[in-house]
Amino acid sequence: MKLFIVRHGQTNYNVDRLINYDPEVDVHLTTAGIEEAQKVSDQLSVEEFDRVFVSRLPRTHQTAHIIKPDSELIIDARLDDIRNGFEGKLVSDFKALRNQSQDIYNYRYNKYSELSKDVFDRVQDFLNELKTQRHNSVLIVTSAHPWRHFRNILDQRDPSASLHENIPNAELLIREI
Known about the structure:
The protein is of the alpha/beta class. The protein has helices at 12-16, 31-43, 58-67, 91-99, 116-131, 144-154, and strands at residues 2-7, 51-54, 73-75, 137-142, 172-176. It has a five-stranded mixed sheet, with helices on both faces. α3 (58-67) links the parallel β2 (51-54) and β3. α5 packs across α6. The termini are close together.
């Protein structure tokens, strides 16, 4: 099975460097984000997908509809961004607190927030389920944190080593499983 994993295009929150994991908050693609998604669409124009999976976050739906306009989207919460307790706050504020921790991979801001490992486990569960299905080609549109873990799992990388890596908007990862 061939996987095409895409980070969503640029959003209004990306421009303002804000965190969003709540699907009810108005976070949408900017003009630049629409252009980024269109570039991915152009790259994948000849691809046919058996399934198109997205998170609950509207920015992933927007991106997927630009890439494959007539696709039926399958929403899966396991593809959501990390719920780190900083909804609507600056990314830099979260990273400053997290980076003070001795173990940034297992950093938890409060009892309601997720660990990076929790997202890793969600992505692993999603992939395990996907492997039981018979598809030739699948498009997955998600956010940066799950995108990192797809790459970590599929490339057998240390997941704790990738937390400082910047994943550009509309970044495309293609792998076979």
